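Internal ticket - ligand job 291, 2'-monophosphoadenosine-5'-diphosphate:
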Amino acid sequence: MYNVTIGDDNMINGSTKLACLIGQPVEHSFSPNIHNCLFEKYNINSKYMCFDVDKDSLKDAIMAIKALKINAANVTIPHKVDIMNYLDDIDTNARLIGAVNTIKNDNGKLIGYNTDGIGFVNSVLDKGYEIKDKKVMILGAGGAARSIAVEIASNNAKFIEIRNRSIDKAQNITNTIKENFKSIVKTGDISISKEDLENIDILINTTSLGMSPDVDKLPIDKTIKLDKEILVCDIVYNPKETRFLKWAKENNLDTLGGIDMLINQALEAFYIWTGVRPDREYLSQVEELRF
Ligand code: ATR
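stdout (structure tokens):
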């Protein structure tokens, strides 16, 4: 047997399976750190690698996954939508989201999932908050907003309001929710008043406002003072504490940052592939995962 040693006791042998990320660019992904740590912790003989795939090569990449019997994959920008054309089956919520970020190879059948919104929901639940029967406002109506809206509707949120600069994109998401779930929906523009916020339990920023290097931007008026206790979430993870989360803290509100969603979407993918629910706490102890 031809063995290669990586690090101390990380052996690759003839039975080693491969999991991979398909995207472009992929160099700065945290996924290899997370999944290789988890494979090692749970004694799963598998390695995770990133592949930089051009748009024109996506179909070939999928054929390679099948031919090489790669049993697990993540998909990232710019392939999350186009990949759906090449899969054998797609999970119901991923179909409603219209994008796939996780693939399981089930004996040659490639099944697509989307764990982004589930990662967000699990982050909220981990923090001890409920989604069921809650009133939620989402700022932004891009891909991330859509995955979060579908999953919080799937978790029986009572009311989902989507606020976006381009109202048609917000309506597109609420139409999907109306047709498939029981949550009450509403759309509006991005100018948020104190009264709007007093009517909700959870506020989520999915716009790119506040992302490095534009760290001073935020999606609401920072002079708003709020008495009601709401959970304020930002999916932006760079910087770790955005201006939006600082505004929440100035108002003594509980906050959830984007890194939790990032980790939880990976943990959900790991669960889909392996059936193992990983220990979230373990990851926070691993030096190279201290984001
Ligand atoms: P993602 O896939 O991460 O959700 P996206 O699809 O590019 O990213 O969505 C980005 C979101 O940020 C959109 O809702 C966008 O608003 P528009 O739909 O009107 O473009 C929002 N956004 C980006 N820059 C913004 C700005 N300067 N002001 C308000 N909203 C902004």
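Auto-summary: Confidence is low (pLDDT under 50) at residues 1-5. The longest helix spans residues 258-274.
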